[in-house]
Fold this protein.
Amino acid sequence: MERLQKVIASSGITSRRKAEELITAGKVFVNGEKVIDLGRKVSGNDVIVVDNVVINKEDKVYYLLNKPRNTVCSVSDEHNRKTVIDLIETDKRIYPVGRLDYDTTGILLLTNDGNLTNILTHPSNHVEKVYIAKLNRIMEIADLKKIRAGNTVDGRKCVPTHVKIKDIDKAKNTCLVEIGIIEGRNHIVKNLFAKMGYLVDKLTRIRYGFLTLEHLKSGEYRELSIKEVKKLYEYKR
Ligand code: URA
């Protein structure tokens, strides 16, 4: 642990005296929290923002991937299947933030920043994840209402932030449903629908907090901007 002003100065952006002035002026944030105390000490994992700029002391990296089907959401796989890490060119030891199933596609964050991962994956910070599920039959309105009201899965209630039918294919007797979830339990979306007697044939995550896929095609990724990282830190309650 080192004094905040020393860490700021050693990042090269300013002198130690100027760093102290910035701290007392309320321009310095540690893990999203304003710090005006000159006695504050920080560790290598803390993310320090000075005048809206993240100081780069530990080379934290942040990627947003459009995960393709048939990729494993972990750093390695015992069956030698392709992992999401294989898709990203980096020499840093990154890992996925939370999990998507092997056959689930869509938005996935990867980083080596443990602090941010803890913030984003803790349910109390209310990071909403939005999915589109293709169901094996048209959803009945009574079932939609039940899912909206909240259902118990594996002994715990899950109340989605919203559920709406986006499209109905009468000829094929299928539908697309959008659902928003705060918690990050494995298979939560599939299990919620299974409870009501529906199979999820396809699942894609279209939003993670405020982040969307925008123009990323399947398998493509980009780095997050400093502004986006800072905004993700603001999820901390
Ligand atoms: N819920 C699921 O069932 N699967 C996922 O991949 C993500 C959320």
Observations:
- The CA atoms of residues 62 and 224 lie 6 Å apart.
- The longest strand covers residues 200-208.
- Residues 62-123+211-233 form a domain with the Alpha-Beta Plaits fold (CATH 3.30.70.580).
- The chain has three domains: 2-54, 62-123+211-233, 128-208.
